């Protein structure tokens, strides 16, 4: 990897994560380990060779580590180290900052980005209203969300206890809701999205989901 040769902490950090695709690899591992093929599928536009090199670089710098599952699985997973997970606040802040740019590319929003947008948009002042354990089934993936008194945790896993509410849908429908192409009510009516649980918990889950994707407020008309 190339180095800026600058002792400043910003430059030294960019020596580790400044190469193209490196920080997006970290982003897609924040919610849990992934296989190489799953990482590659989630990073549209990266070649297998470049992804292999980025994983190697991040491993050498102690940001990512490999873990081989024992037989009969024989699967190699990539996961963040403690050093890698420490990048989460930076990625969430960068996501909030970047989402305010004037235009967005034409590419599709990935499921990890949607989940992290939910986390980035979490308002601790609303925690009491959103408090609960939620389980989201998006295509073949399952995500566990827990809102406590002042924090929100998301992982690519099943809820460790029975969830208060569940959501089941496909990624295309979830994207359409987040992009305001359809309403959640319309998705429920069409059967493309299902909610389970008591009414209070279902309302908390939908509020949590939609809060990060509300349209930006428009400036008031000038007199």
From TrEMBL:
CDD domains reported in the protein's UniProt record: HTH_ARSR
Annotated HTH hxlR-type domain residues: 8-106
SUPFAM superfamilies: SCP-like, Winged helix' DNA-binding domain
Keywords (A to Z) from UniProt: DNA-binding, Transcription, Transcription regulation
An example Gene Ontology molecular-function term: DNA binding
Name of the molecule in the record: DNA-binding HxlR family transcriptional regulator
Lineage: Bacteria, Bacillati, Actinomycetota, Actinomycetes, Streptosporangiales
């Amino acid at each position: 990897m190339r180095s800026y040769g600058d002792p400043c902490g910003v430059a030294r950090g960019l020596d580790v994560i400044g190469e193209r695709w490196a920080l997006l690899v970290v982003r897609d591992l924040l919610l849990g380990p992934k296989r190489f093929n799953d990482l590659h599928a989630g990073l549209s536009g990266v070649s297998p060779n470049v992804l292999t090199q980025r994983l190697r670089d991040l491993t050498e710098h102690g940001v990512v580590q490999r873990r081989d599952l024992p037989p009969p699985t024989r699967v190699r997973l990539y996961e963040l180290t403690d050093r890698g997970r420490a990048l989460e606040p930076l990625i969430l802040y960068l996501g909030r900052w970047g989402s305010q740019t004037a235009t967005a590319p034409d590419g599709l929003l990935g499921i990890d980005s949607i989940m992290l947008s939910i986390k980035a948009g979490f308002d601790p002042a609303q925690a009491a209203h959103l408090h609960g354990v939620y389980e989201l089934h998006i295509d073949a993936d399952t995500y566990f969300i827990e809102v406590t008194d002042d924090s929100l945790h998301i992982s690519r896993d099943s809820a460790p206890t029975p969830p208060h509410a569940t959501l089941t849908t496909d990624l295309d429908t979830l994207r359409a809701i987040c992009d305001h192409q359809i309403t959640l009510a319309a998705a429920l009516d069409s059967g493309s999205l299902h909610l389970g649980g008591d009414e209070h918990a279902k309302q908390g889950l939908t509020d949590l989901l939609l809060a990060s994707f509300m349209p930006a407020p428009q400036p008031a008309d000038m007199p």
